[in-house]
Design brief:
about 210 residues; alpha/beta; 6-stranded mixed β-sheet
Length: about 210
């Protein structure tokens, strides 16, 4: 059996809860660190949990720091470049309201269906190219998971971004979670020949336990 734990990083100094940060390499805020510590405690309390066999993250600081907090600062982290968040182009760092005010024509094209694969962020990346990039990262991730030496209970941890986790969850388990900051998704595969399925989607109850 294989278990893949997907965690979205916590809040950032730039307020990722309301702003569209993609490739901008911003750090976790103190709230974000508290969210990641609450996530660590949630895993520690799970029956039979003894740690992660593999720890993977986007190379951006908000993800790698989150992974280190959850798994332990002594654990090595495999950074997968393809798991950087989408390049929002001229939308980068703005709220939806600011995008509408500054780029009304682009906003009108984007807003009705923000995940439209045919949409390209002005000055940035297309949704289709982003999805293709993440899919290449998925293959690298699965190779890392399968080749990892035994450690802990065999689960693999990935800390990444909403867009990245959305593509992974959809491609592997055909689910479309909301993916709030600090949320947890757990996918399982009972046999290498079987498909992945979602065991937990959009777990956020642990975020009520902030230190």
């Amino acid at each position: 059996m294989r278990t893949l734990v997907l965690v979205r990083h916590g809040e950032t100094i730039g307020n990722s809860s309301i702003r569209y940060y993609g490739r901008t390499d911003i750090e976790l805020s103190e709230l974000g660190r508290r969210q990641m510590r609450a996530t660590r405690r949630w895993f520690q309390r799970r029956p039979g949990s003894t740690g992660f066999a593999t720890v993977i993250a986007s190379p951006l600081r908000r993800a790698t720091e989150g992974a280190a907090i959850i798994a332990g600062a002594d654990r090595s982290i495999v950074k997968i470049e393809e798991f950087v968040e989408v390049d929002f182009g001229r939308f980068e760092g703005l709220t939806a309201g600011e995008i509408e005010a500054r780029f009304p024509v682009d906003f009108a094209r984007w807003n009705p269906s923000r995940l439209d694969p045919g949409f390209a962020y002005p000055g940035g990346e297309s949704r289709a190219d982003f999805a293709s990039r993440v899919e290449r990262g998925i293959q690298r991730m699965l190779e890392v998971i399968e080749s990892a030496p035994a450690h802990g209970d065999g689960a693999a941890l990935l800390v990444a971004h909403r867009g990245v986790i959305r593509v992974i969850a959809e491609r592997l388990a055909a689910v479309e979670p909301v993916i709030e900051l600090g949320s947890i998704q757990i996918l399982r595969r009972d046999d290498l020949a079987e498909a992945w399925h979602a065991e937990i989607v959009d777990a956020v109850e642990h975020l009520a336990d902030l230190d």
